[in-house]
Amino acid sequence: MPKYYEDKEEDSRACAGIREDFKACLLQHDCVVKEGKMPSECLKEGHCKALQTSFFECKRSMLDARSRFRGRKGY
Questions:
Q1: Transmembrane stretches, by residue range (predicted)?
Q2: Residue 8 pLDDT > 80, yes or no?
């Protein structure tokens, strides 16, 4: 679920909730924090794979003509 904060500006972009959770997962992962690697390197190692897939599906649903009827995937 997305994390909501009171003093935060609302992001009205598509897939904003998944984007925020994906970013937080990468930046708080031990790969970045303890090992000091770049988030892109941690992605290649397979960390936060479920959120990466969900974010991809959400972005792909924006291009799908059927999503006009079904709505975008994600939150």
A1: none
A2: no
In the chain, what is the straight-line distance between the N-terminal and C-terminal CA atoms, in Å?
8
In the numeric block, the tokens 């892109």 are attached to 40
Q: Encoding tokens for residue 66?
A: 């059927």
Mean pLDDT, range 2-19, rounded to an integer: 71
DSSP H or E run through 27: helix 16-28
Classify residue 15 as exposed, middle or buried by CB count within 10 Å of its CB (0-12, 13-18, 19+): buried
With tokens 């992962």, the residue in question is 29
- Measured CA to CA, the distance from residue 70 to residue 44 in angstroms comes to 32
Residue 61 burial by CB count (10 A; 0-12/13-18/19+): exposed, middle or buried? Answer: middle
